[in-house]
Amino acid sequence: MRQEKLTEQAQEALAISQELVRQYHHNQWDVEYILLALLHQEKGLVGEILKELGVNVEIAKQQVVAVIEKSPRIAYETQQIYATPRIAQLMQMAGAEANRLKDEFIGTEHLLIAITGEEKGDAAGILKRLSVDQEKVFQALQKLRGGHRVTDARAESKYRSLEKYGRDL
């Protein structure tokens, strides 16, 4: 996956997720770390989508952390982390979702939609238990994005800008 085809928030989420792997003393980078990173982006689009769906982001974080903490820790510190095959599948699914939505960049919303589309995996299971599925994410995304497409790397920061920065005169 070429970094230049990711939005800034998506790049940030992937970087955070890799740092989380190190913080938890693991060496396998998996989808659950990406979900946790997306949940950590407090002002991010994924948080807005989940709030739109009535999901308590803190509870979601706790559930993801509980799953991550079950993984065995490595006894030594390493800079080398390994991406699982699920990461490659997730990125491929996110790219396909961006294409389906006619977006030019892969954003955090595409990562979330791809996670909900996983058939197996703890991240998808957590979202299902929180009543988050692809269709609901897509509907919330349409509401938040309006008719906007992802045409540049800063697209997520532009959604709902009138509501964020405007005021009723």
Q: What this model shows, in words?
A:
By secondary structure, the chain is mainly alpha-helical. It has one domain: Orthogonal Bundle (Double Clp-N motif), CATH 1.10.1780. It has nine helices and two strands. Strands 1-2 form a two-stranded parallel sheet. It starts with 7 loop residues before the first helix and ends with a helix. The relative contact order is 0.19.
Question: Which SSEs are present, and which pair or pack?
Answer:
Layout: H1 8-23, E1 28-29, H2 31-40, H3 45-52, H4 57-69, E2 82-83, H5 85-100, H6 108-116, H7 122-129, H8 134-145, H9 161-165
Parallel strand pairs: 1-2
Helix pairs in contact: 1-2, 2-4, 2-6, 3-8, 4-7, 5-6, 6-8
Helical percentage? 55-70%
Straight-line N-to-C gap:
45 Å
* Structural class computed from helices and strand pairing: mainly alpha
The biggest beta sheet reads: 2 strands, parallel
SS summary, helix count = 9
Shape descriptor reads globular
